[in-house]
Amino acid sequence: MAALLVACAACSGGGSGAGSVRPDGGSTLDAAPQDGGADAAADDAATQDDGPPVDGGSRDTGGTDLGGDPSGPCQAWAAPASVGSAGDANLLEASGVVVGRADPSRLWLHNDSGDAAVLYALATADGAALGRWRMVGVDAVDFEDLAAAPCPGDGAPCLWVGDIGDNNQVRQNARLLVVPEPPPGDRPGPVLPRLTLPLQYPEGPVDAEALLVAPDGEAFWIIEKGAAEGQSRIFEGRGPFADEVPVVLTTVGSITAPGLLVTGADLSPDGRQVLVRTYTATTAYDLAEEQTPADLGAVAGRTAARGPLSEQQGEAVGFAEDGRSFWTVSEVRGSTDPPPVHFYRCTNPEAP
């Protein structure tokens, strides 16, 4: 995927971007954000953050009432806290990130095109490398997004890999790879995909980088990277799914995401909120109980994060263990320094 140059003001709404984690678990911003309007005020007002739970459990808030409905979609997030840099030196083009369902102390990631079919694990506590798992019998073409959801049929935790990138829109072999999530304590090594799902778009090849999977693992949605007039089509695939049996996709809607091109997305574990990432921002969309990502075009989004500027080419976004906070990671172009791993804590100051 070609790198995209964007103006700093567009990346951050005029703000600085990321912070760093203090030894006491909080964080400080590298520079105070400037005013970017009402949305930016909601995004960047917080200058301190408690960071993610380091033990996979919930963090003690010290009795602080965060407000809102703790079971509902998040309404506001703290400024990004960096938990450290990606500990694996090979993770320079991270384009997908999720927190493990089997082991929430691990983040799972993959690189963009050019890498082997490898899943990387990092520690949520500090970004330390935990190992590499290579998918057996898979030649990676253009991995672009990653989702954590049940395996179809039995509900076991799986990682859904979107081999869906197609800059020239010529691929006839776009597919999803459904891989059992390695259990806690599993040593790095080979992993065998449970399902390979070839994709058939209704109107020919599509360049896409955003994958969302239903909470029950029986449906998924793919969002086009970008098209004419800023519209990105939304495609839906529904089960039952079978290995190597093509999934005929249906166009179910479209979305105009703020920013430049849709580069990633995630659906909360309860199916009530969608995060859509572009190169310049992350936007949140709240879904009613009867809605799915097919309805995104009818839902008003709000800015969850701008930039941050320390993410040169933002592509990866994934919900945290609580289903309300989230993580982001970026590709790194022209550098051998691994990217920072950012955590955005849900503060939810007002009820949904």
Roughly how many Å apart are the termini? 37 Å
CATH level 4 superfamily: TolB, C-terminal domain
Q: How many distinct beta strands?
A: 24
What's the quaternary structure here?
single chain
How do the SSEs run, as a string of H and E?
A: HEEHEEEEEEEEEEEEEEEEEEEEEE
Q: Could you say which overall geometry the principal axes of the C-alpha atoms support?
A: globular
Mean pLDDT: 81
What is the CATH-assigned architecture? 6 Propeller
How many structural domains are formed by the residues?
Answer: 1
CATH class: Mainly Beta
**Tally of helical segments:** 2
Concise synopsis of the structure shown:
This protein is mainly beta. The protein has helices spanning 8-12, 38-44; strands at residues 19-21, 27-29, 81-85, 94-99, 106-111, 118-123, 129-135, 143-150, 157-163, 175-180, 190-191, 195-200, 208-213, 219-224, 232-238, 247-248, 250-255, 262-267, 273-278, 281-286, 302-306, 313-319, 326-331, 340-344.
